[in-house]
Specification:
The chain is of the alpha+beta class. It is 44% helix and 22% strand. The chain is built from 10 helices and 9 strands. The strands form 2 sheets. It has a 7-stranded antiparallel beta sheet with strand order 6-3-5-4-8-9-7, with helices on both faces. Strands 1-2 form a two-stranded antiparallel sheet. Strand 1 and strand 2 form a beta hairpin. Helix 2 crosses helix 5 and helix 8 packs antiparallel against helix 9. The longest helix has 18 residues. The chain is globular and about 55 Å long. The two termini are 38 Å apart.
């Protein structure tokens, strides 16, 4: 451990931490993370908003769009032949229910507290989700997420060593603007990567993990194969496109990653 990092805040540029007060609370008696499958991203957003309206908000919402859903499912650990057979039967069931796996979205929802509180919240939230066409997948998706969620930050460096650029940009907006902002910003990212010098095929995914009475955050992840000798310009073109889209569509410049040199052109 670098001891300097324990006492110096903001890389030493803004001050030195001399004292800290910690807030603690009892560990929850029970914590369960369920996976739910929605027909599309929009219905998942509507379900989240309804939960906020009804003041029935669990410990965690995490709604993935179709591309982020595919990425999350790719992180599932290898399964047995029996599990694969069960998964195949489930896919058939979902197709019969009208699910298109090119549009379907995974919602991870965590309930924690006493056993009675968890049971009550799970019942209330699941009832709201069902109104918007969701199916409860049980605990397996949640267990997979809990076991791999800290792997994602390491992927960027792993990919950089293999000629692939990846990064994130996040924002927040009011509920009525989430879908237009999502569509515009993901389109801006894909176009910027495709039209960069020697344009390459982009990958763009998004998830929502923070909700409020007035709105929610959008967390975009993007990746593409690097163009040799043009890596920085290729990256900056994509980053600038998505940040400009946030501003053009009346959203915040960032959500929880704060600001830095890459955001300077938009601060005024």
């Amino acid at each position: 451990i670098d001891v300097n990092h324990l006492c110096i805040g903001s890389e030493g540029t803004l001050g030195v931490i001399t004292e800290a007060t910690m807030r603690v609370h009892p560990r929850a008696e029970l914590r369960r993370t369920h996976g739910y499958l929605f027909l599309d991203f929009e219905s998942g957003i509507q379900a989240m908003h309804e939960c906020v309206r009804k003041e029935c908000v669990p410990s965690m919402f995490r709604l993935n769009d179709p591309d982020k859903t595919s990425l999350s499912l790719a992180f599932k650990p290898p399964s047995s032949r029996l599990s694969q057979a069960v998964a195949g039967a489930m896919k058939t069931y979902f197709r019969m229910k009208g699910f298109d796996f090119m549009r379907a979205c995974l919602m991870l929802t965590t309930f924690e507290g006493s056993k009675a509180k968890v049971a009550r919240e799970h019942h209330q939230v699941s009832a709201i989700y069902r109104r918007f066409g969701a199916v409860d997948l049980g605990l397996s998706s949640g267990k997979s997420f809990e076991s791999t969620k800290y792997d994602f930050p390491h992927i960027r460096d792993f990919l950089l060593d293999r000629g692939i650029t990846s990064d994130v940009s996040e924002t927040a907006t009011v509920w009525s603007n989430i879908v237009p902002l999502y569509r515009a910003s993901t389109a801006a990212l894909r176009t910027a990567i495709l039209e960069s010098e020697g344009g390459v095929k982009p990958w763009v995914g998004c998830h929502i993990s923070h909700t409020y009475q007035c709105g929610a955050s959008l967390y975009l992840t993007f990746a593409c194969r690097q163009q040799h000798g043009r890596e920085i310009s290729q990256y900056l073109r994509a980053k600038r496109a998505v940040q400009q889209s946030f501003i053009d569509h009346q959203a915040t410049l960032s959500h929880h990653h704060a600001v830095g040199t890459e955001h300077l052109p938009w601060l005024s």
